[in-house]
Amino acid sequence: MILDESADVEFLLLIGHHQMSVRAIDILALSPIRDVEGRVAESRRSAARPAPLPSGRHHLSREQVVTSQRLRMLTATAEAMKDKGYVGTSVAEIIRRAGVSRETFYQQFRSKEDCFVQALDAATKQLAGLLEAARQSAADSPEATRPAPPEETFRRLLHLYLRTLTEQAAFARLFLVEVYAAGPEAMAIRMEWQRWFAGAVAEIFHVGDEGGADERSFGCEALVAAAAQLVTAHLVADDLKGLRGLEDPLVRLAVRLLG
């Protein structure tokens, strides 16, 4: 089957949505679909780097063209800053990697910092959405005859979080490493999402449902801050195996602080 350009875009979006759902369901052990995940993951890897639009006439709408260009620029920003850092990455490097013109870049972003902030926000929204979808899938599953213990729910979501960071290391570095060089607006977004993660942990461990809520709320914030620092250290060292190995000690820490 031969697809036109607009169908190509829709097909890639479908693959991305299906991959997110498959990964969440598989990690939460809701069904045995590892063989399906493998096939979708392979499709995602083959389409991981958005390709430039075809030259000449095509059937894409203006909105599809802008979306494609934006995706390529955000991806190029993450990849360039993974290789060169925030300070060492120029707008010229981003547009070279994205295959767009300088005019196209400035039609969508005010500056390198603005592009970084939008890439950061997009990456964190995607991760937060993935974790929330996974949590809801576990809660709404007909197989869940009774609520899972908080430790088990936290482990499953932490596993998903660490796995996503290893698979999307470039965007993970944006959120956890390069953000320190990108200015106050980027740091504000980072802190806002860190508070969101702390709130999610508080919900998992039912903080506020019993005495000592203030102390346990601080424990949630401390746990998320510690996890972010440990993850950052492994990303800087490009130690993805060590990153995945944080699961057990972080679960034990969560139980000691909040169990």
Number of helices: 12
In whole angstroms, the N-to-C terminal distance is 54 Å
The secondary-structure element order is HHHHHHHHHHHH
**In which range does the helix fraction lie?**
over 70%
Integer average pLDDT: 78
Derived structural class: mainly alpha
Number of strands: 0
Tell me the radius of gyration: 20 Å
Question: Major sheet: size, sense and barrel closure?
Answer: none
User: Ranges with pLDDT <50 over ≥5 residues?
Assistant: 1-47
The outline comes out as elongated
Protein described:
This protein is mostly helical. Helix content is 75%, strand content 0%. It has twelve helices and no strands. The protein has helices at 5-27, 34-46, 62-88, 91-98, 102-108, 112-140, 150-167, 169-176, 184-204, 213-236, 240-244, 247-258. The chain starts with a helix and ends with a helix. The model is unreliable at 1-47 (pLDDT under 50).
Q: Would you summarize the structure shown here?
A:
By secondary structure, the chain is mainly alpha-helical. It has helices at 5-27, 34-46, 62-88, 91-98, 102-108, 112-140, 150-167, 169-176, 184-204, 213-236, 240-244, 247-258.
Itemize the secondary structure elements and their pairings.
Blueprint: H1 5-27, H2 34-46, H3 62-88, H4 91-98, H5 102-108, H6 112-140, H7 150-167, H8 169-176, H9 184-204, H10 213-236, H11 240-244, H12 247-258
Features:
12 helices, 0% strand, single chain, 259 residues, disordered N terminus, mainly alpha
